[in-house]
Design a protein that fits this description.
Largest sheet: 8 strands, mixed
Strand content: 25-35%
Keywords: Methyltransferase, S-adenosyl-L-methionine, Transferase, Ubiquinone, Ubiquinone biosynthesis
Strand order of the largest sheet: 3-2-1-4-5-8-6-7
Low-confidence stretches: none
Pathway: Cofactor biosynthesis; ubiquinone biosynthesis
Order of helices and strands: HHEHEHEHEHEHHEEE
Catalytic activity: a 3-demethylubiquinol + S-adenosyl-L-methionine = a ubiquinol + S-adenosyl-L-homocysteine + H(+); a 3-(all-trans-polyprenyl)benzene-1,2-diol + S-adenosyl-L-methionine = a 2-methoxy-6-(all-trans-polyprenyl)phenol + S-adenosyl-L-homocysteine + H(+)
Structural class: alpha/beta
Shape: globular
Radius of gyration: 16 Å
Enzyme class: transferase
EC number: 2.1.1.222, 2.1.1.64
Number of domains: 1
């Protein structure tokens, strides 16, 4: 069996916090606050209702459940069993239907190539040793002409200041040590991974936080957080 594309320390970090995933006042508050924005953006591009959707690195299921609520047939995969347990438990509360599986993107790509209309991989690429491998798996998992949505953090002095110094240490939006600057990915680098995987980049949009208003918004500023919409070659 191939080595799993995961950092045990990163998995442990999120597993330790898994029980707090659905607490909107917890360390996962930013995920709760950005979810309506990213969900609306994805739905606007891919019309989720009735689509077979895969959420890679689904964690506790915030995005996966949101897509299910819009009528998608959702599968969520993650390598943290604790996070998946929390995700499965929350389905009893929400009443939504998501098929959660404990496996890697690469393993599922071997098992079910071309199965999904839409693949999402949000806030995960900066936590794995080989992000290009994940992008390639996304491309293998999606149907020709299907949509792949990615999000991560840009790598530059501003992103270091905002995402690590600001978000983790000053504003305490995230636990200290959540991110490692060296693993941030420039849009040009992620675009190259996509091209190599035969995914055509359609749009790159920024996600910004206003600390005064304490609100998030989508816009042109991709200096810190950004989302990418790609379509698989037909």
């Amino acid at each position: 069996m191939n080595t799993v594309n995961a950092d045990p320390a990163e998995l442990q970090k999120f597993s330790d916090l898994a029980h707090r995933w659905w607490d909107p006042a917890s360390e996962f508050r930013p995920l709760h606050e950005i979810n309506p924005l990213r969900l609306g953006w994805i739905d606007g591009k891919a019309a989720l209702a009735g689509k077979k959707v895969l959420d890679i690195g689904c964690g506790g299921g915030i995005l996966a459940e949101g897509m299910a609520a819009l009528g998608a047939e959702v599968t969520g995969i993650d390598l943290s069993e604790k996070a998946l347990s929390v995700a499965r438990l929350h389905l009893f509360e929400s009443g939504h239907k998501v098929d959660y599986r404990h496996m890697s993107a690469e393993a599922l790509a071997e098992e079910s190539p071309g199965r999904f209309d839409v693949v999402t991989c949000m806030e995960m690429l900066e936590h794995v040793p080989d992000p290009a491998s994940i992008v390639t798996a996304c491309a293998r998992l999606v149907k020709p002409g299907g949509h792949v949505f990615l999000s991560t953090l840009n790598r530059n002095p501003k992103s270091y200041l905002f995402a690590i110094v600001g978000a983790e240490y000053l504003l305490k939006l995230l636990p200290a040590g959540t991110h490692e600057y060296a693993r941030f990915i420039k849009p040009s680098e992620l675009s190259r991974h996509c091209r190599n995987a035969h995914l055509d980049v359609q749009e790159i949009i920024g996600l910004s936080y206003n600390p005064l208003a304490k609100t998030y918004s989508l816009g042109r500023d991709t200096d810190v957080n950004y989302l990418m919409h790609t379509v698989a070659a037909g």
